[in-house]
């Protein structure tokens, strides 16, 4: 006897993930401090015995997209597409995050009108 796959209902359909939340830290050092405090950094040892710190970006509990520096749309380009004036950097170090919000991260959350980068849905 074979089991039939149940038809999805409102109770069985998972909630759709919306973009964000988005975070802006003062700089990369502030981001790394927050990531360490949240337990997202770990130390690994390579085959030569060298240790390094790495971000646990994707786990069953969270997903982290370190965007870094974002740029404004104010660059100037000539008719061949060559840069005349470079775009200016936006303030801060940007990170996209999905999961339970780590303690203290509320103050870094931002709500961009038009996000530059989002998680796929």
Question: Can you describe this structure?
Answer:
The protein is mainly β and 121 residues long. The protein has a domain at 22-100. The chain has 1 helix and 8 strands, in the order E-H-E-E-E-E-E-E-E. It has one helix at 28-37; strands at 22-25, 41-45, 51-55, 62-68, 76-77, 83-85, 93-99, 109-110. The strands form 3 sheets. It has a 4-stranded antiparallel β-sheet. A two-stranded antiparallel sheet has the order 2-3. A two-stranded antiparallel ribbon has the order 5-6. Strand 5 and strand 6 form a beta hairpin. 8% of the residues are buried.
Question: Short summary of the structure?
Answer:
The chain is mainly beta. The chain contains one helix and eight strands; from the N terminus they run βαβββββββ.
Descriptive labels:
about 120 residues, mainly beta, four-stranded antiparallel β-sheet, two-stranded antiparallel ribbon, 1 helix, about 10% helix, extended
Calculate the mean pLDDT score and round it: 87
**Global shape:** extended
What share of the residues does DSSP label as strand, in percent?
25-35%
Give the helix proportion (percent range): under 10%
Strand order, largest beta sheet: 4-7-1-8
Let me know the number of strands: 8
What topology emerges from the helices and strands here?
Elements: E1 22-25, H1 28-37, E2 41-45, E3 51-55, E4 62-68, E5 76-77, E6 83-85, E7 93-99, E8 109-110
Antiparallel strand pairs: 1-7, 1-8, 2-3, 4-7, 5-6
